[in-house]
Amino acid sequence: MAEGTEHENPQGRDNRRREFLRGALRWPLLALLGLLGGRLAAGARGPLSPDEACTSRGVCRGCTAMPTCGLPAATLARKAPY
């Protein structure tokens, strides 16, 4: 038989479908992992406990952790009428 005239077997079709699905899922999953890694690298911080050190060098205004920070300076800054 000449090349190209053979009937394609179902296995070949299944393999192409699997590769398509892998490719269609691979990029969104990689993007999601990248976003998650970026979020973690950006330093999404939780509340500070009194045992932890201040990450803003004692300047509470503008600190992202201030609303939930447990340090005494942050507690006073939240109560301040400014």
Distance N terminus to C terminus? 88 Å
Helix percent reads 40-55%
Could you say which overall geometry the principal axes of the C-alpha atoms support?
rod-shaped
Strand content: under 5%
Average pLDDT taken over every residue = 76
Q: What's the total number of strands?
A: 0
For the largest beta-sheet, the strand count, sense and barrel status come to: none
**Rg of Cα set:** 28 Å
Secondary-structure element order, N to C: HH
SSE class = mainly alpha
- Which residue ranges are poorly predicted, with pLDDT under 50 across at least 5 consecutive positions? none
**DSSP summary: helix tally:** 2
Short description:
By secondary structure, the chain is mostly helical. The chain is built from 2 helices and no strands.
